[in-house]
Specification:
This is RNA polymerase sigma factor, sigma-70 family. Helix content is 72%, strand content 3%. The protein is mainly alpha-helical. Helix 3 crosses helix 4 and helix 8 packs across helix 9. The chain is elongated, with a radius of gyration of 28 Å.
Length: 188
């Protein structure tokens, strides 16, 4: 993190420069993501914790006085304190679950995946497959057979032409026409 650059951006952002605010947020992003990966709060999503960190960053920016303090130290302390307060308030609200908070140590941090899987990442491919199956169902019998043979069974187009008893050039036109129809049906 470039301290001088962040000081300059903080002063510009304090004067109302929105681009400087955005650049400052981008410069603090690795620090914030690192803190969020190491902190689990019961009832909070990863993005919620991340948003609390950014909220604390901008609150520190509003209270920042360039004559009294260095911004980076002030902001990092503010963000850490905000997370600590969040952890304390979370434990006060949830006395029944003693495992409501998990702060990862360096040892545990390397055993867990850094990438967070989201439901959408699994759901969208399944929806796309269902849409594709429905579109294939709307094709003519010969077109379905070609698509199944070439793309599902992963066989060469020449083998399909030979099996169907048609010239290879005809099977190429048939494949292209089938793919165009699929594209139209799906809406692409």
């Amino acid at each position: 993190m470039n301290l001088i650059e962040n000081e300059r951006l903080a002063v510009l952002a304090k004067m109302g420069n929105d681009q400087a605010k955005e650049d400052l947020a981008n410069n603090f992003k690795p620090f914030i993501l690192n803190l969020c990966k190491k902190t689990f709060l019961n009832g909070y999503e990863f993005e919620d914790v991340q948003n609390e960190c950014y909220k604390s960053l901008f609150k520190a920016l509003n209270k920042y006085n360039p004559e009294n303090k260095r911004f980076v130290a002030y902001a990092t302390t503010s963000i850490k304190n905000a997370l600590s307060n969040l952890i304390r308030s979370s434990t006060r609200h949830d006395k029944t679950d003693s495992r409501s908070i998990l702060t990862l140590t360096d040892c545990l941090e390397h055993t867990l995946a850094y990438d967070i899987d989201f439901v959408e990442d699994e759901l969208f491919p399944k929806i796309e497959i269902l849409n594709l199956k429905a579109a294939i169902g709307k094709l003519a019998k010969e077109e379905k057979e070609l698509i199944e043979f070439v793309y599902i069974k992963n066989q060469p187009l020449k083998a399909f032409a030979k099996q169907a008893g048609i010239p290879y050039s005809t099977s190429m036109r048939m494949r292209n026409r089938s793919l165009e129809r699929l594209k139209e049906i799906i809406g692409g």
